[in-house]
Amino acid sequence: MAKRKEDLLTRLLAGLSVRGILLHPATLFVLASSFTIGVAVHLWNGHQEAIVNREDYRLTVDKIQLNDPPPWSDGDLKKLVLDHVASDHTASLLDTTLVARTVETFKNVGWVEQVRKVEKSKSGLSIELVYRGPIGMVELNKLTIPDWPADEDGQLLPVDRQAIILPAKLVAAESLLRFSVFDPIRFTKLETWTEWPDERIKGCAEISEVLGSRWQELGLYRIVTFRRPDRQIDPDSPFELWPANGTQVIWGNPPGQETPQEASANKKLVALQEFVAKYGPLNTLPQGKIDVRSGKAIGSNVQTAELESYDWNRK
């Protein structure tokens, strides 16, 4: 049986020749297809203007669809795209690198957080972006910075939900929650559109994102934590929500960092909203504290130290 298989294989191999391979239908099909594709590519590269009307595919500002940027942003994003992707002063929808180059353009735009979508068609370029927005103001003053000059006014630096530093001119201070942490790490070396390398600032931003615009109706004013810079992750020193005066809230850890015994951020928020619905905004209540770490608002009328008199070194 083995010998018959060997004889069959020998006959098949003997029937193959260079001429036979070259004239085989499969070989002829591959050669013809390759030739056709090659000719098409050559004609396209050398005679595009004769094949299509390039003006129909010319990218202009009118052909760029872009969701509206924030009112405080500066610069024309549509013009920025055209300037970046144009070749010989012309941007074309026929450019095979157009989408990739458009995405690359926005990597250098500070107020753009994410490029969600870039699509091109004969009608133009469709772009969907996620813009950065201020979510809180980091307090820099003699109360939070040990060596702050006594004769110098404090500063408020806005950050977004990812703790990216935004231009101070963006928003009025009263329109955002304030973030108060002791000695924010390397604040003097930070630049606009860079991330604040302090987990406490990030924690404040994450909590502020959960609160959203509700912080005003809840009667809040600032987010505080007494964690020191060398213990930025410290479950024993929770984040707190403070009104300008009135009842304070022991919040606990930032979203995603809760202890096994701690409720989720959404459950804490629900507990806080229910408390305010029953008793009124926190800034209208007597000074005291409620603890929402368990997902329920547990109240206490214990008097607490104000930020101005708090001894940061006791922790």
Explain the overall architecture:
- It is a single chain.
- With 315 residues, this protein is an alpha/beta fold.
- Helices cover 31% and strands 18% of the residues.
- The chain contains eight helices and eleven strands.
- An eight-stranded mixed β-sheet has the order 5-4-6-7-8-9-10-11, covered by helices on one side.
- A hairpin with a 2-residue loop joins strand 2 (112-121) and strand 3.
- The N and C termini lie far apart (89 Å).
- The model is unreliable at 302-315 (pLDDT under 50).
Q: What percentage of amino acids are in beta strands?
A: 15-25%
Residue stretches low in confidence (pLDDT < 50, at least 5 long) are: 302-315
Order of helices and strands: HHHEHHEEEEEHHEEEHEE
Annotation field: number of helices: 8
Query: How many strand elements?
Result: 11
Overall form: elongated
Radius of gyration: 32 Å
Mean pLDDT, to the nearest integer, reads 81
Describe the main β-sheet briefly. 8 strands, mixed
Helix content: 25-40%
